[in-house]
Amino acid sequence: MFGILEIILPILAVLALGFLSRKKALLSSEGIEGLKGIVMNFALPCLLVGAFYTADYGAANVIVALVMFACCFAGLFLGRLIKKAFRMNQDFLPFLTTGFEAGMMGYGLYLMLFPGESLANFAMVDLGQVLFVFTFYMAVLNTKKGVGTRSTLLSMLKSPIFLAVCAGVFLGATGLGKWIDASPAGETVAAVLDYIGAPTGILMIFVVGYGLRFELSGLKDALAAATARIAVMALLCLCALFLISSLVPMTYGLYWAVVLMFILPAPFVLPVFAGSQKDTAYISTSLSVYTLISILLFAVIAATAAA
User: Fold this and answer.
1) Given CA atoms 110, 269, 137, 49 in this order, what sign does their dihedral have?
2) What's the N-to-C CA distance of the chain in angstroms?
3) Is the separation of the CB atoms in 261 and 298 below 8 Å?
4) CB 3.0–4.6 Å: which of 46, 90, 100, 151 could bond 196 by disulfide?
5) Which tens digit of pLDDT belongs to each residue from 137-152?
6) 98: buried, middle or exposed (CB in 10 Å: 19+, 13-18, 0-12)?
7) Cα(121)–Cα(255) distance, integer angstroms
């Protein structure tokens, strides 16, 4: 129990500090954007390069990435089915039942839960959904907002996260990453990447806490969206685990990386694509509600993994 509390309580404390910082106006939104900029432009890209450039790019990891990519497509499709079947008048519901906020939450939680495990496990699970989010997901959202394909492509190519993933995958797939890692400079490169990436976890959780918003008027719809996502993610998680374990060796780290991915909320970038204040409130409240659910599910994972 104390081991689990050592993992959960720091997360809850940092979330609470972020939330109180907004409520008490201890930090401005500009200050938070600055912290987010440090994470998204420097800390997280270094963490991603470090995870991907030493990863194994054999058939097993390619299969894992393809399974996750397919699951993201299935999540969008199932979200549309639920919206239609239950006559839910929320255009953004299907986008809340697919994709994962691995960048702002997933990596930090995985590092806290498995500090001794290779981050490459989670990175390879993340690769499929990164490709989905930065291609199909963003393209469909930009179409809803009236943004053209060219602008979408340019935005993707300018993203430090996408560029970091591409650089890490290139170095790893070509063997250059392992060559660098085995060279005399390998330890220095790893130390630099680890040092810059070290603040990622706490800064991400703090920013998430600052962004938690609960609109009482939209709480009913947010809970409905959370219920829909839980149902979809539970089904897809079981399918992913079955497919991956049937096709590749299922290691301890890979198993929990998959499970952890499926408890995460939808991408936090989603409110940017809202066309109205009503849609913005709906998405923000839904993401906030599911973030708290994610933390509760993370506590269950921590208890189970530690058992």
Assistant:
1) negative
2) 10
3) no
4) 46
5) 888 887 766 666 677 6
6) buried
7) 9
Q: Which two tokens mark 171? A: 């170095």
Single pTM value for the model: 0.84
Four-residue CA torsion sign, 11, 282, 96, 87: positive
**For range 52-81, the mean pLDDT:** 91
Other CB atoms within 10 Å distance of the CB of residue 205 = 24
* CA atoms of 126 and 124, how far apart (whole Å): 5
Q: Are 61 and 254 in contact (CB under 8 A)?
A: no
pLDDT given for residue 137 in this prediction? 86
What's the CA gap between 4 and 11, in Å, rounded? 11
Task: Please work out, in degrees rounded to the nearest 5, the angle formed at the alpha carbon of residue 23 by the alpha carbons of 34 and 92.
Answer: 75
Each residue's pLDDT tens digit, 279-294? 888 888 888 889 889 9
Q: Which amino acid is it at 161?
A: I
60-72: average pLDDT? 93
Burial of 226 (0-12, 13-18, 19+ CB in 10 A): buried
